[in-house]
Amino acid sequence: MSFDLSARLAERRAAHLYRQRPLLEAPQQPEVMVDGDRLLAFCSNDYLGLANHPEVIDAMQQGAAKWGVGGGASHLVIGHSMPHHQLEEALAEFTGRPRALLFSTGYMANLAAVTALVGQGDTVLQDRLNHASLLDAGLLSGARFSRYLHNDAESLAKRLEKASGNTLVVTDGVFSMDGDLAELPAICATAKQRAAWVMVDDAHGFGPLGATGAGIVEHFGLGMDDVPVLVGTLGKAFGTAGAFVAGSEELIETLIQFARPYIYTTSQPPAVACATLKSLELLRSEGWRRDQLNRLVARFREGAVQIGLTLMDSPTPIQPVLVGSSERALRLSALLRERGILVGAIRPPTVPAGSARLRITFTASHSEAQLDRLLEALAECWALLPKENEDA
Ligand code: PMP
């Protein structure tokens, strides 16, 4: 017996599920060079346009000159440096919580928080549409793991009735493939009735949501009492890399003591923390970036409805266009690309079968003129796209 990898790959190709990595040949901006073509891109998570901000770049360069380019060791050995410490303090202040803990990626922050808080004999309940890292964390934890219907507090309540041990309710803040918001007030109230804790992964909410960009918890006016475990990622609106968990003194100490994905990995380069300190400052002070995003989203939704596209209930910069089959999603994405526009086709297993889509994302760096170019191209390509049952 040997591993038949070629059969596995061929099967994936035949199902229109084969994934390619576009090769970016110029910085992450609305106009990009990809695989030799100059394209207008609507697929970045750099929502506030900070990834190429000169002051953020300068902060990283100065950080590298001072601290070198590597973390050097794990945090508990000798990898925890002054920029990490300062960033943790700034993130705690930003989220209005006693402490924050820095991670190298959001994937690891999610694995760490869930596995440190629940294990055998406990229960973890998750929204069906949670990010893959949360679902993986639930499986890895060894706790009883069940998924409730998307954003459905009643479905959650039913599962809470059967829960045992410490119970953690976990939800994305903004759902990464649909762009909609978690119904946090109802979810938190339901969890509280059963003394369950709520953990929110607000990877896509920090930056775009809330009066100061502090995400979905700020958007709904909730506190640490409602959401004891708050996760944010830094590779999206912050424009840098990494993630954090914010919460009580005891929560953060528990993660430092028990979270294996925190303990057994090298700290992020301190220069990245220097860059994030600067982008946090900009994220808070330059409210016009959020305003520009909101304007773009409103204009896009209006235009898309006129074309007859099927949108989702999303008030965020993630604006999926539902297409149906994987083949049609790929075809639409290819037609747009022929017109110089880059938008990703999202297919199963990332989204449920039959709900393949274009995942259009906006950043504050997009102009109204660029958005109009997208709408014109969408109108043209949508008209050319064979209907579902006409697929070749
Ligand atoms: N949570 C959500 C909701 C995400 O969308 C992502 C990234 N796609 C992550 C976590 C993982 O974050 P990171 O990319 O920093 O690992």
Provide the residue-averaged pLDDT. Answer: 96
Radius of gyration: 21 Å
The CATH class of the largest domain: Alpha Beta
Q: What's the overall geometry?
A: globular
Instruction: Indicate the CATH topology of the largest domain.
Output: Aspartate Aminotransferase, domain 2
Instruction: Give the number of helices.
Output: 15
List low-confidence stretches.
none
**So what's the oligomer here?**
single chain
Largest sheet: 7 strands, mixed
How many structural domains? 2
What is the fourth-level CATH superfamily of the largest domain? Type I PLP-dependent aspartate aminotransferase-like (Major domain)
State the end-to-end CA separation: 37 Å
Beta-strand level of the residues, as a percent range?
Answer: 15-25%
The number of E-state strands comes to: 14
In the CATH hierarchy, the architecture of the largest domain is 3-Layer(aba) Sandwich
- Give helix % range: 40-55%
Keywords:
392 residues; alpha/beta; Aspartate Aminotransferase, domain 1; Aspartate Aminotransferase, domain 2; 2 domains; 4-stranded antiparallel β-sheet; 17% strand; binds 4'-deoxy-4'-aminopyridoxal-5'-phosphate
Describe it for me?
Keywords: Acyltransferase, Transferase. This is 8-amino-7-oxononanoate synthase. It is built from 15 helices and 14 strands. The longest helix is centred in the last third of the chain and has 20 residues. It is globular. Bound molecules: 4'-deoxy-4'-aminopyridoxal-5'-phosphate. The site of 4'-deoxy-4'-aminopyridoxal-5'-phosphate (PMP) has 14 residues, from helix 5.
